[in-house]
Amino acid sequence: MQEMDEFIAMLRDSAEGFLADFQASPGAKTEIAVPRPLNRELWTAMAELGWLGLLLPESQGGLALPVSAAAELADVMGRYRFPVPYIEAAIMPAQILAAADNEALAAELISGETLFSLAWQDRAGSDAAFAACVLSDGQISGQKSFVAAVEPGSQLLVCVSSVNGPAIVLVNSDADGITAQRSATASGSFCQLSFDKVTCTPLLAGTGAEQALASAIAAGRLLASAFLSGLSRACLRDTVDYLNQRQQFGRKLSSFQSVSHRCVDMHIHIELAEAVWRVAAEAGDEASLSAAKARASDTAQDVCRQAVQLHGAMGFTEECSVGEYLRLALQYGNWLGSAKSMRRAFQSARTAEALA
Amino acid sequence: MNSLNVNRDEMDDADFRAEFRAFLAEHYPAELKQDFHRPFRRLRGEPANDWQRTLQKHGWRAPAWPRESGGMGLSFRKQLIYHEELEHAGVARIIDLGETQLGPTIIKMGSPEQSEYYLPRILNCEHVWCQGYSEPNAGSDLASLRTSAELDGDEFVVNGQKIWTTHANDSTHIFTLVRTGKFEKKQQGISFLLIDLDTPGISIRPIINLAGEDEFCEVFFENVRVPKANLVGELHQGWTVAKALLGYERVWIGSPALAGKALALGEHLVQQLGLEDDRGVMDELAQLQADLHDYRLLYSRTCDAIADSGKAPGPEVSMLKVYASELLHRLTEFNVEIGAEYGAVVGDVEIGGVSTADMQADLYWQLMMARPVTIFAGANEIQRDILAKTVLGLQA
Ligand SMILES: Cc1cc2nc3c(=O)[nH]c(=O)nc-3n(C[C@H](O)[C@H](O)[C@H](O)COP(=O)(O)OP(=O)(O)OC[C@H]3O[C@@H](n4cnc5c(N)ncnc54)[C@H](O)[C@@H]3O)c2cc1C
């Protein structure tokens, strides 16, 4: 236990240094409404830190850390508004490769040499994943929505249905028969993918596929919650710094009660968000995980929107850090379960627990 | 007199409405309409000027100006109809500060020479005006502004900086508040000065906003020489000159038009995403629908009272700005939330329809463009201070 605590402290520490350097670099600035390719040099540096294989078993060359350790890292990433698809292209695909027990692919992911994307979602606002794409005769056809970090040469892990039930298969994003419609997000892009008889390699089938996807989504949700919690904290801190320094009417803005009380309310919500994701990280149950994602999604979007207001016109500029927080809050707050849908999931999980 | 010399103020309200509606249907370009992709679309630059000239040609320009100044001379009630019809037709907004702010100021406080020179040039868009009030250290506390204008013979010499100047990069002129003297109260010693943006010593730097657009700018003044004749009103009395129109500004910013567009988008999204059976979503939508419905009634009631009184709006109209802008916030946030993953996209996205055709939307844009409405023209915190003090009598 103590060993783990020390390790996590070290992980957070080294992440702070790395992310602070990145944030100060020109590459950290993101353009609005422009899909952005993943920075491969940065990705390789993250691989060297061991981040890509954090959760993979040692037998596959990973660090075999618990998902709570990855959540710690995501919290730090949020604090540095790290606009890189770590959850999308490292954490979630790794859960699938771990389940598939595929050492060769895992090695490619860990080294950062190959990019992986999990193409799971059938449609907006739903966890349905195995209906919109069909496998037959070794080829897949259908649609996938909101697939993050698809780049030339990426490997796609696609959730499909087959006569034998659900399956997860591997296809290269450059393969014939794939068309992509891309839109911008804070961490890069989402693709709407269409598959027309694309030849694939099977990875997982049946309940194995379902369980692997469930653990990928759960890990994604947990990390997104931690990321949003860290992000909210940093956005509030930046706002407090601004209010302490900006003067109007011969006083600091921080001295106006209608301003300071709002900051306190935001702080309470951030404390709630952190309390919940930390418990979810240890317990891993459906109820606390859903609660964590709901709380963090709401809190981050609310904090960032209020931060715009409290910065005045400055908050409405592209230059100000608030916009970067806000765009990330929108991404991780509305993807992998919006606050509303996560509250509903929380309610169902609670009801199920009460009945059990 | 407007170019057609018709007096539409004498028309019956219903006829007036019908005629303007028909005019807009015939003349407003369909491709410039507000739509679900750009529900709060604004025009600027040439498309804006073209449309203003079309209005001018047909006698529909400057509804609030007196006829002898070249406007339509409409009563406040008819102006409301005019704005309702613009909203109804989905006409994009134009920030024409020459028409809405400077013109009325000159008419009220300017010299005859200023009226004669500037007003026709505003109407035909030869001059396009922006508003240079805010400075880096003078935002909510506008009276602490420091850009200085010192008299040197027949000219003022202007030095300093303005910021957040909307569309300075599309304008030919700027009306400014500048410091001409130091007195005990900081509201004194401010003057209202008209400046041609072509004057040597002026530089403009656009600032990119949260939606990625270069709508506002910084404007720098370095030894800019401005004729003394460009002073509007008395020297040192600029604060009073600028304040004279604030009430009307708050009435127009309080218009339910933007909220109406955001709600229409929300209603369409609910259908597009097949959420009609989702009780939670429908309850929230019902709340927003009722809020906008009730607000429209409050808005008409307040505007009717202003029209009946024949007086300028009082401080109570701050409530319009507060409610309308915060309702707009809630509406655009609702649209993002029900959009689920589409709400995570920054920019254009195709939203697949459940039973309808796909729609192109940009939920990020509408969320962002709603943000500054609670900030500009007196931030809502400041409006609440005004209401607390003047309407409720809460003592500081
Ligand atoms: C999109 C946009 C367009 C604009 N266009 C123009 C333009 O064309 N010309 C022009 O001159 N200006 C323009 N402005 C500037 C606008 O008038 C100012 O932003 C506004 O006056 C607020 O000033 P500020 O931005 O400096 O914020 P600040 O005054 O620094 O305020 C920051 C925050 O603190 C709050 N605050 C300040 N004082 C108090 C208090 N006493 N009590 C409680 N809270 C307080 C504010 O409400 C705000 O939330 C524009 C602004 C925006 C956002």
TrEMBL record, chain A:
Protein keywords: FAD, Flavoprotein, Oxidoreductase
Limits of the Acyl-CoA dehydrogenase/oxidase N-terminal domain: 10-85
Cofactor: FAD
Domain Acyl-CoA dehydrogenase/oxidase C-terminal per the UniProt entry, residue ranges: 207-344
Top-rank taxon: Bacteria
Gene Ontology molecular function, alphabetical: acyl-CoA dehydrogenase activity; flavin adenine dinucleotide binding
Residue ranges of coiled coil: none
Family per record: Belongs to the acyl-CoA dehydrogenase family.
Name under which the protein is recorded: Acyl-CoA dehydrogenase
Top-level taxonomy: Bacteria, Pseudomonadati, Pseudomonadota, Gammaproteobacteria, Cellvibrionales
UniProtKB/TrEMBL annotation, chain B:
One CC-aspect GO term: plasma membrane
SUPFAM superfamilies to which the protein is assigned, alphabetical: Acyl-CoA dehydrogenase C-terminal domain-like, Acyl-CoA dehydrogenase NM domain-like
Key word Transmembrane present: no
InterPro entries: Acyl-CoA_Oxase/DH_mid-dom (IPR006091), Acyl-CoA_Oxase/DH_mid-dom_sf (IPR046373), AcylCo_DH-like_C (IPR036250), AcylCo_DH/oxidase_C (IPR009075), AcylCoA_DH/ox_N (IPR013786), AcylCoA_DH/ox_N_sf (IPR037069), AcylCoA_DH/oxidase_NM_dom_sf (IPR009100), Mycobact_Acyl-CoA_DH (IPR052161)
GO molecular function: flavin adenine dinucleotide binding; oxidoreductase activity, acting on the CH-CH group of donors
Domain Acyl-CoA dehydrogenase/oxidase N-terminal, residue spans: 14-124
Protein family: Belongs to the acyl-CoA dehydrogenase family.
Record's protein name: Acyl-CoA dehydrogenase
